[in-house]
C-alpha cells in the first residue's frame, strides 16, 4: 500500500543495521538511531485536505456555539448613574453620605421568554480585583479556622481594630459589594434564591462554619458590606463570592437565582440599594439577568473564534486548490532551493 | 622481551651514540646555588633529616581535583553563580524572599535549586572520577630504599624528598628524580616523555659518573649525598643543582633529571634520588587547563540571552511607568480614587505619595515576574542533550573500527553541533590520510628498477589519465598473489621474481645487489627480537627503518643480533634452496645518527674476515646524498635519479643508499677527531661532531635507492570526495616533499584532473643563488617579495566570486614560503587566495606552522576542524574549533588533545555529514524551541499585567510557574534535542549538500 504524504524512514534503514554485529558495541535500532519515524511531507493534496478537514470540523462547532449563545436571554441594566438623583452634582459625596437613603427603582422589560433558572449578577467595570495589593490582602487560615482568629498577616491595612484582630481581615473582605436587589414581577414579589451561589469547596473548606465575623467594618472608613456577626463565614455566601477574586477588571458576580419563568414583555421592577462606591474610580455598576444554556451564559466569542478559524481554513483550502490547478509545481523541485535560484533565473 | 633485556645488559650504548641524544647539558651558572630561588637542599638517603633541619616539603600525594569534601559546596556554588544567567536567577531568588516578590519564594528558588543541584551533581561526578584517578596514581607502587640496602615496595604517596627509589622498566617515575645509576654501566637510561611534551622518541639521560657505579641494592646502605638545587619551577628543560658526594661537589644538569610522568624505557631499572615531590614536580607545575572551547551556537545564544535580558528590562520599565502613574493617581488631594486599595494607608510599594519609589520597587518585582523570558534550565538542558548526543555518536556502529576495537569517542560533548557547520578541514597526512604503515615496495639497484607492485597513487594516476592499465596490473597482481599464496608480510610488498627467493644471484649486478641489502640490514638503529621459533622481529624508532630491515630479511639478509660492538646478519645462501644460514658478524665502530638537519645516517663497521675492510654505510635523502658521491661512484646516478623521480611521482618516500670503503689510516684519523669532538664539553660540540662526520661521509659509492609506500587509509579518497561535494574545503598540512604531497593529493582525490594548481614555492634561481651567498636579511627580503608576488599572481588567476565556481583551483605552498606567507602583512592576502581554492596543500610544514595556519583560517570566521594523529598535530588540534584525533598508531597524544577521537579518517564523513547535520539541527531547533516556549510564557504574563494595572500579579499559580521550566516543558524539548531527525542517515550521506 502507499502512503503518499508520509515518507517511511523505517523502510529505508536497512543501511548499517544488519551489518556484522560487534560484541563491544551495542547494536540496536535505538542506539543506531534507526527507530521507525514518520515525517509528513507537505504535498498540495495533503495540505488542502487537512485544511478542509479542519474547516469541516470547526465551522459546525462555531455555528452551534453561536446558536447556543444567541438563545441566551440577557438583560443588562447599568444603574450607577441613573440611581443618583439628577440634582446631585457631587456623586462621590452623595454615595459617601450614609444619612441619605439610596433606594432606587429600576424597571426592566423582558425582551424574550426567559426560562428558569434566571441568574442574577452584578457587574462591575474598572474594578481591579486583580491588583497585587488587593489579591494578597487576606488570610486564608483565619477564614478557615476559628482558633486562628488572631492570624492577620498579609491583611494590611485592614488588620486590627483597636488592637483586636478583624475577622475576616484584609482589603477584599473589607470592600465586599453591598448593593442589594429586590424584584417585583407584575406587582408580585419575585423571590430570589441566594443560596448555593458560591463554590461548594469554598463553603466546605475555605470558610469555617465556626468562624464568626468580629470587629468587622468598625473603622472610620467603611468599605462595603457589613456582616451579621451571628452567622458563620461559611454561610455568608455574598462574602464568599466576593472573595473569589476576579481575574479581569470587568467582572460579573452571582447575586442569586430566580426560579420563575418570565414571559416576553413582562416588566420587572427592581428595588435596589445603591450603596457601593464606584464613582471615585469611574467604575460602572450593572445588574444582569440571564438564562443559561449548555454553553453557559451569553458569549459569542467561542462561536466566532471557531467560525473564523474554520472559515480561514476553508478559504486557504480553496486558495491552494486554485493555485494548484492554475500553476502546479513539481514536488521537490530543486530549482526553488535558495542556492539554485540564481541559476534557475528566478 | 626477556632475551632482549639480557642482550642489552652490558651495552655501554653511550659510546655508540654521538649526537644530541647524549649532549651534555650546557654549563649553567652553578654559583647561584644557595641564593634566593635556589634554596632547595636534599639529603639523599636521609629523608627524615629534612624535618629536623626545618625544611618543609610537600608530600608526594597529588590531587588534581577541583574540590575537596569541605570546599565542594561553597566552591562549586561560586562557580555556578559566575554564570550571568544563574547569578541573575540567584538575585531574583533572593529578592523573592522580600515583600517585593510577585509570587512565593519557593516558586523562584525551586527551579533554581533544581538546576543548580543538577549541575553540581555533574561537577561532583566529574570530580569524583578525577579523585579516583588520583587515588590510583597515589597508590601506585614503587621500591624505596629503607636502609641496609633493602628496597621495600611503597605507595607513591608515601615517597619523601631524599628517598632513594628504584624504578623498573616501563614504569612511570613517581616524582622528579636525580638519576643515580641504571643497569647500564655508564648510568644511562631511556626515557619516554610523551606525557610531558608529546614527543614520542626516546630521550637518553645519564647519571653522573661518580654515582653510576652504584649498581646493587646493597650499595645504598651508607650512601650520603647532599643535593642543592633550584626551587620548584615549571621549566621542563632547565635544571641547576649540585651534588656533594664523597667530599666533592658535582654539578647537576637536566641530563640527570628524571621527570615525574615520564616513563622508563629500554632500561631494566634505575636508581634515583627524589628531589621534587607532589605538586612541586615540574609536570605538576606545568599543569594547565586545556583550552576550553565554546561552540559558536553557545556564543550566539549568549547574545540572545542578553537581548532577552534587555527586552525584559524594557517591558519591566514600561510596566513600572504605568504602575507609577496609576498609583500616583490613586490619591489626589486627599481623595481616594481606588478606595478599595486603601492608598491612604499604604506601604511603600503602593504608596501614591511616593510614587517614584513605588515605581522603582515595582521594577524589581517586574524583573522577577518576567524572568520567564530567560530560560533558566537552558544551559543544563543543552548540556544534557549534548551528552546524550555524544552517547549516540559513540555508539554508532558505522564509526566503529573492528580491527582496532575502537569506537568513536566524543571526548568533549559541547562541540557536537559545530560538526554540522564545519567549513574547512585541516588534515595531517601521515597517519591520518595514510596508515603510517610503511611498505617497502620498490628499489632501484645499480640503475635497475625492481618491484612491480602498483601503489595507490599510481592507481589513482592511471584512473586520472583514463588508462585502464591500473586495473589490469591490479588484476594481474591479484592473480599473482593467489598463485603464490604466500602470507603477506607486514611492511614488505616488493614483488619481483628477479630478486626474490635468492634469484638476485643471477642478475648482472649481483655484487651491488648484495651490498645494497647488506646495507639495509646494517645501517639502522633497530633492535631485533628473536622468538622461540627463531623468527626475528624488530623494534624500530620509525616505521621506515622497520620496513628496510624487514625487506632485507625477506630477501635473505636477516639482521639477527645486535651487541654493543657488533651486528650479526644471518644470510641465506642464494645458491641453495634449503635454509642454510651463514652468519656474518660486523664489528660496529660508529653510528652517526639521523637528524633532520643532516638528513642522512651512517654506520661505520668492520667486515668480518677474510675481507676485513672498514665500511661506511650511508643512507639519506637524495638532496644530500648525490652531492657526496665520489666521482667514480656515480655510475648509476642518472638512472637512479630518474627512478627516484618516478618513485616520488608515485607518492613513495625515497632514500638513497651509498657506501664507502675506508682504509685503516683514514678511519683512525676520523675516530680520533670524532672522539675529541665527543669528549669536548664546549658549546660547539655538536658542530665539531658534525664536522667530523661530514669529513668522512664523502666520496661515497652509489648503490641505489629505496622506495617505501605510506599506504592510504581505507576509504580516504571516497571520503574526501564526498566531503568536497558537501562543500567542505580540505587543507592538507604535511611535512612531506612537495612532489609527494601533490601525488598523495591526487591519490586521495584531493586534487583532480582539470584543477588549476597554483604553486607557491621558493625555488626561483635568484633566491637559490642568494641562499648560497648566505646573507640572511636579503634572503628574507627577496623570499618575501617572491612569495608576495606569487600570491598576488594567484589571486589574479582565480576569478572573483560569482564569475564561476571556485572548484577548479588548488593551492600548493611549501614550508619556506609558508613562513613568509604567515607573516602579519601577507597573511590575509594568503588567506584570501586560499579560501578561494577548493583544496590547499601545505608541504614541509612544521607543527608550529600547522597551528598558525589553523589560527589563520579561524580568522576568516569559518568553523575549522583539524584532524591529526601525532604529537606534532597537537597544536593544530587545540587551535582549531574542533580537534579530531585519530586513535591510531602514533600514540595517544593527539587523542588526548582532541575533542573527538575516531579510529579512521573515513569515519569523518559520517561524523560530519550525519551526526554533524543532526546535532546542529537538533541543537538549533531545540534552542529556538526553548526561547519560543519561554518567550510565549513571558508574554502571556506581560499581557495579563496590562489587565491588572501592572501591579505585578502573575497570571498563573505559583506551582505552575515554578514547575513550568523544570518539569512541564523540559522533557519534550530535550527529547527533540536528542532524537529528532529531519532526514535519515542514509539520505544525509546521499545528499551531501545538506551539510
From TrEMBL, chain A:
Keywords from the UniProt entry: Membrane, Transmembrane, Transmembrane helix
Q: How does this protein lie in the membrane? A: Multi-pass membrane protein
This protein's major location comes to membrane
GO CC term, one of those recorded:
plasma membrane
From which domain of life does this come? Eukaryota
* Location of this chain's protein in the cell: Membrane
Regions crossing the membrane: 46-68, 304-326
Q: Which family does it belong to?
A: Belongs to the CDC50/LEM3 family.
* Name this protein carries in UniProt: ALA-interacting subunit
From which organism does this entry originate?
Aegilops tauschii subsp. strangulata
From TrEMBL, chain B:
Species annotation: Aegilops tauschii subsp. strangulata
Binding residues annotated for Mg(2+), in chain numbering: 428, 430, 869, 873
* Residues reported in the UniProt entry to bind ATP: 428-430, 545, 594, 619, 653, 734-736, 844, 850, 872-873
Family classification: Belongs to the cation transport ATPase (P-type) (TC 3.A.3) family. Type IV subfamily.
Question: Mind listing the GO molecular function terms for this protein?
Answer: ATP binding; ATP hydrolysis activity; ATPase-coupled intramembrane lipid transporter activity; magnesium ion binding
GO CC aspect terms: plasma membrane
Presence of keyword Electron transport: no
Name the reaction it catalyses: ATP + H2O + phospholipidSide 1 = ADP + phosphate + phospholipidSide 2
Q: How does it sit in the membrane?
A: Multi-pass membrane protein
This one is known as Phospholipid-transporting ATPase
Q: Upper taxonomic classification of the species?
A: Eukaryota, Viridiplantae, Streptophyta, Embryophyta, Tracheophyta
Q: Which residues form the P-type ATPase C-terminal domain?
A: 895-994
Provide the E.C. number(s) assigned to this enzyme: 7.6.2.1
- P-type ATPase N-terminal domain ranges (all copies): 42-108
